[in-house]
Amino acid sequence: MPGQSGGLIGSVSAPGNQVTFGGGFAYPSDGSAVSSGALTGSATTNTSATEAAANAAAEVNGLSLFGGEITASQVVARARATAKNGQGSGDLSGSTVSGLVVLGQAVSASPGQQIALGDWGYAVVLAQGASPAQHGYRNFVTALEIHLGADHGGLPAGSVIQVGYAEAAATAAPPPPKPPAPAVTTPSRPAPKPSARGAGSEDPKPGAAATRGPIVRTVPKDLQVRLTRGGYVFPVHGPASFTNTFGAPRAVVGWHHGEDIFAPMGAPVLAVARGTVFSVGWNDIGGNRLWLRDTEGNEFYYAHLSAFSPLAVDGTQVEPGDVLGFVGNSGDAQTTPPHLHFEFHPVGLLSLGYDGVVDPNPFLLAWRRLEDIRLVPGATWTPPVAPPSRAPRPGAFLLSASDISTASGAQPGSLLRALAAQLPSVEDAQGGG
Known about the structure:
Elements (H helix, E strand, L loop, with lengths): L17 E5 L2 E3 L6 E3 L2 E9 L3 E15 L4 E15 L2 E5 L4 E3 L2 E2 L2 E2 L6 E5 L3 E13 L2 E13 L11 E12 L77 E2 L3 E2 L3 E4 L5 E3 L4 E9 L3 E8 L4 E7 L1 E2 L8 E2 L4 E4 L12 E7 L15 H8 L45 H7 L5 H4 L4
Antiparallel strand pairs: 1-4, 2-3, 3-5, 4-5, 5-6, 6-7, 6-8, 6-9, 9-10, 11-12, 12-13, 13-14, 15-16, 17-25, 18-24, 19-20, 19-23, 20-21, 21-25, 22-24
């Protein structure tokens, strides 16, 4: 829960095999938000010199959320990971949600299924992910996850309810190297002449790739970075939630280089500072992604967008709060709830390349405490209020139209012009005269 500790029951981990049992769960104490019957959790590991296995399971019976708006007879999360000879595999097939009923409608659960919850949130069923790790495997599953985009049932917007989470990871040493082949004596030849670049070095042949030993990427610890002067804003507009996952293990890149900010699909993604947009496009990991360089040289990375705004063009100059795109789950985040992956690369560490990054969490917490950006008439998507008008200053207007393709997004006045041909006149709206 944003700004509060929330509640947790049944958390276990291994090594050191553990099992927990509970007669039920209620939050708050009257169970008005979450209540359940019996629950169990277990975590076990088995290892040997060449093989490793990990198992995690969580089971919740008789689940009820918000006084019966969401119910399930049983929620089960199971994760298994094994590794042998430096290779791994896993299994999440034992995860199920049985007897699920959402707002009076029975739902047949399927992995990654997302269900709208009126105008106050959404649910994700069997959210899961898996990734090969170095010499092993890691996977996880959340059997049922509820995200609140608005206050509901006594819980504030941004709250997340997770029922049944299991994660397993296993690694094993690679097989021993094969014994070297017997030495073969060959006629001697003159040693190569040193190149102009220094003794002992040779230029690689044209078209040949130079190789080097493995690179170990480590998480930077206890770096103290101060942002330079200038206004900064939180990168997602509206309800959003995040926890500190910087440095957590990740496939391909080794560890989590940023923070995941969860928000409703399509929530506006904002420029955190005045600066220049660059490297707008797609890659397999980040999906729709872009970079922003502020006026002092600090760089910010945005990933997993569902779409870009017209401002998301290489070289565009933007102001704090300008809309760059919209929250999504593109790239390797397709099986996860919509979120923005956000990174902070301070100017003093850019020489380190992609690993020149620091934990953005303290900055996000500071920016989140700032007052939300007011949508200023004439500068965003709202029509200006005429000086003699007594109408209140706009926050946001909900407008509808069948075609706004002629609009250019965040450009002042363009959306209003696109709507002008489709919106009824004042006289028509008032019945004439």
